[in-house]
Amino acid sequence: MKIEYKINKIKITEGLVYSRIKESTESYFKLIRKVLQYDGKTYKDNTGSLRSSMQYIILRNGTPINDESIKPYLDKPIDGAKYIVAIFIGPEIVEQFMQYPKMLRAIIKNYQYYLDNHKNGKLYRIHNGSAYNSMFAQLFCDNNIEEYESRITGGLFSEQAIDAKKFLEEYFKLLDCMKKDDE
Q: Which pLDDT tens digit goes with each residue over 36-69?
């Protein structure tokens, strides 16, 4: 008896990649919102400003793309197209991080993992491979590279340089929330 089998190749299209990125990002936001609503005993809706301040955009080869503009590429094989999701956090997020420092700590930890695995990337170079530097730039420099570099280096006054890690740990009391987790 001869056994025959057929292997079907999976066709990875740009549409598949785009939809998985979109679904994953929306799922991530949903999880963050749920975590923030939990006060240790019950779930309370206290994330209104966070919901409105968190947004994302998907980039295809560095250009923003949405459900409409992806249509010409839906069935095309991925063949070198690069997709990335950029997450934007509005001005209310600083207050949210003050209230929920564990969330900031988790974001920094996960972003550091990303940077460590993308050492040839532009963000790695700009932020010297530090998730703390990246969060400092997002939260306190509105992602303005010149302002960020001036604050980190001190510009003409190097003694005024800011250590982003130390600053964020003190400002958001990240070390305190780490100690509470260890107890």
A: 665 556 555 554 444 555 667 787 887 778 888 8
Rg (CA), the chain: 21
Give the pairing of strands 54-60 and 83-89: antiparallel
Q: Cα 48 to chain center, whole Å? A: 20
C-alpha–C-alpha distance, residues 91 and 124, integer Å: 24
Handedness of CA 64, 66, 69, 72 (dihedral sign): positive
CB 118 within 8 A of CB 127: no
Task: Report the predicted TM-score, pTM, of the whole model to 2 decimal places.
Answer: 0.52
Closest CA to 133 of 118, 111, 154: 111
d(CA 7, CA 26): 33
> What does each C-alpha distance from 90 to 53, 126, 157, 166 come to in angstroms?
4, 21, 30, 23
Spell out the alpha helix ranges (H) of 3-144.
Answer: 14-37, 48-53, 93-99, 101-116, 122-126, 131-140
Residue 51: which residues within 8 A CB-CB, separation 6 or more?
Answer: 33
């956090």: which residue's tokens?
A: 89
